Amino acid sequence: MAEQEKEAALPSKASFSEWYNDILHKGEIMDVRYPVKGLYVWYPFGFNLRRNVYDLIRELLDKDHQETLFPLLIPENEFMKEAEHIKGFEDEVYWVTHGGMSPLDVKLALRPTSETAIYPMYKLWVRSHADLPLKLYQIVNTFRYETKHTRPLIRLREITSFKEAHTVHATWEDAAVQVDEAIRLYTEFYRKLAIPVLPSKRPDWDKFPGADYTIATDALMPDGKTLQVGTAHHLGDNFAKTFDIQYENPEGEQVYVHQTCYGISERSVAALISIHGDDKGLVIPPEVAPVQVVIIPIIFKEAADVLQACESVKGKLEAAGIRVKLDASDNRPGAKYYKWELKGVPVRLEIGPRDLKNNAAMMVRRDTGEKQQISLDNIRDEVLSMFSVIQDNLYEKAKQGLDQRIMECISLADIKENLSKGISKVFWCGDKDCGLRLEDEVGAGILGIPSPQESCRGKCVVCETDTDTKVYVARTY
Ligand SMILES: Nc1ncnc2c1ncn2[C@@H]1O[C@H](COS(=O)(=O)NC(=O)[C@@H](N)CS)[C@@H](O)[C@H]1O
Ligand SMILES: [Zn+2]
Fold first, then answer.
1. Which bound ligand lies closest to the C-alpha atom of 160?
2. DSSP class of residue 281?
3. Atom 29 in ligand 1: which residue has the minimum CA distance?
4. The pLDDT value given to residue 85
5. Which residues pair with 450 in a beta bridge?
6. Which residue has its alpha carbon closest to ligand 1 atom 8?
7. Where, if anywhere, are coiled coils annotated (predicted)?
8. What is the C-alpha separation between 55 and 58, in angstroms, rounded?
9. CB-based contact 261:115 (threshold 8 Å)
10. Of 209, 135, 206, 212, nearest to 172 (Cα)?
11. What pLDDT score was predicted for residue 2?
12. Fewer beta carbons under 10 A from the terminal one: N or C of the chain?
C-alpha cells in the first residue's frame, strides 16, 4: 500500500455516512472501486480483521457444530422446490446459464443462501433419530441481486463472509431450543466485539421465506438506524416435507425432521467499525485487532539503545501471543501516532531515552487517549490487563449509547419524533393491519417483539385495544 499520501482529514463521525465510506478506505478495510456494483475487495488489513472476527464465531460454533462446505451452484429444480422460499428469493437470485459457449440444460443458481443446496444432501444423510441433532455450518460467499442501495460490508451483492448454520432435530420443540441457543451464541459473539445487540422476534410479514418464525439480533448504528447483524429461523418441518427429510424414530416410524438455520455476515465487521470508531478513525476491540500494540521509538541522537529496548519489549509481548508492530520508520512520532490511531490500534507504547532511564514506557490507550507510565518489568501483564479494560469500556460505552436511544413511546407522533435518534418501544396489539398502518404512518419498520418478551399491559398505539405486547420500531439499513 502506498504510504498514506497527505489525504484530506477524515470527516467527523457526526456525518456518519461520509465518515463510514472514508474510513473503509483510509483504514484499509475494503476497496470499493471493483467494477461490479455491490462487489468489493478486502484490503489485507481488513481481511486480517475479518479473520480475527470469524475465528471468534468459529470458536463458539465448534463447541457443538461441525464446519463443512457445500457447492456454490444449485440446480434450478432443487432451488424451485420450496414455494415460500422461492417467492422470497426469486428476484434476488443470480443464474448461471452457460458452460463456456454451450447453454446448460439445467440452469444453476448462485446460492443466495444454501437451504436448497444442503437439504437434498440432508435427505441422504439423515436416517435415524441417532443421527440427530445434526448441526453443521459453513462460511462462504453468497450472492443476492440486491436492488436496494448497496453498501460495503452492509448490503452487498456478493456477501463474502456469510456464516450459515443449518441444524436438524427430532421435534419442533428441540428446534425451538436451538433457535434460542443460536441467539444466545450471537449475543455472546457480539459481546466479544463489544457490541450490544437487541434480540427480537420479527413480525410474520418480515420472517425468513419458508420459516415458521425468525428471531433477529439488531445493533444500533450511530445514525440512529438499526442494522440486522444476525438472524435465526425456525423452519418447522416445511423444508423437511419439501425435501422429504425423515428419520426412523425409536418406535420404528418414519417422522419428518424439524430444522433451523441461522446466519451472520460481514455486517458484524460493519457494526464493529461504526459503533466503536471516532473522529480519529477506527477503534478496534483488542480481542480482534490485527495490530494490538504498536511500539513507537522516540529517537534523538543515540538510537541504538532505544531501538534495542523496543525490540526486547516487542519480543516479550509476542511471546505472550500479542500482535505487536514496531514502527521504526523515519516518520516523525506525531505522524506515526496519527497513522496507528487511524488504524484503531488499541494500545500504543512510546519508548524514548528518558523512559529507558526509568526503565519505563508511556502507554497510551486508543479508546480514551489516556496516557500512563508503566514499568518495562511487567509490560506483558500491564498490556494484557489494559486490553480487558478497553474491551469493557468499549462495551459499556456502546451499551449506554444503546440504552439512551431506546425510547418508550405512547403515540405515533412520539415515534416519528424519536426516529432520527434511535429505537422506539410501543404497545402493539399484534394485528397485521395495525402493524402495517403503524409502519406507514411513521415511515419506519416494526423491528420485532423483544425476545424474551417482557410482561407489560397497555393500549395498542394504533387501535387502542388492550395488549401485553410491545415492539421495537426503528429506521433500518
Ligand atoms: N445483502 C447482504 N449484505 C450483507 N449481509 C447480509 C445481506 N443480506 C443478509 N445479510 C446478513 O445475513 C444474515 C442472514 O441472512 S438471512 O437472509 O436473514 N438468513 C438466511 O439466509 C438463513 N439461511 C440463515 S443463514 C442477515 O441477518 C444479515 O445480517
Ligand atoms: Zn392494534
1. 1
2. B
3. 229
4. 84
5. 200
6. 155
7. none
8. 5
9. yes
10. 212
11. 47
12. N
> Is 142's C-beta closer than 6 angstroms to any atom of ligand 1?
no
Mutate to test the pocket of ligand 1, among 54, 190, 265, 274 (most ligand atoms within 8 A of CB): 265
Query: CA-CA distances (angstroms) from residue 201 to 214, 216, 446?
Result: 6, 6, 10
AA identity, residue 68: T
* pLDDT value of position 6: 56
pLDDT at res. 215: 98
Cα–Cα distance, 136 to 460 (Å, whole number): 41
User: What is the C-alpha to C-alpha distance for residues 9 and 5, in angstroms, rounded to an integer?
Assistant: 11
DSSP letter at 449 equals E
* Residues constituting the chain: 477
- Which ligand is closest to the CA of 114, given by its number? 1
Question: pLDDT tens-digit profile of 74-117?
Answer: 999 999 998 888 888 999 999 999 999 999 999 999 999 999 99
Q: Whose CA is nearest to atom 3 of ligand 1?
A: 155
- Report the distance separating Cα 366 and Cα 393, nearest Å: 11
| Position in ligand 1 atom list of the atom nearest CA 112 | 21
The radius of gyration of the chain from alpha carbons, rounded to an integer in Å, stands at 25
Query: Going along 153-287, which residue ranges are E strands?
Result: 158-169, 198-201, 213-220, 226-236, 246-248, 254-256, 258-264
Pick the atom of ligand 1 nearest to 216's CA. Answer: 27
Q: Which residue's alpha carbon is at the smallest distance from atom 15 of ligand 1? A: 263
Q: Which atom of ligand 1 lies closest to the CA of 165?
A: 25
First to last CA, the chain: 31
Ordered domains of the chain (ranges, CATH): 11-276 (3.30.930.10), 293-388 (3.40.50.800), 406-474 (3.30.110.30)
Which parts of the chain sit beneath pLDDT 70?
A: 1-7
Residue written as grid cell 423437511: 240
* Nearest ligand to residue 426 Cα: 2
Q: How far is the CA of 429 from the centre of ligand 2 (A)?
A: 4
Grid cell for residue 301: 541522537
Inter-axis angle of helices 172-192 and 44-61, nearest 10: 140
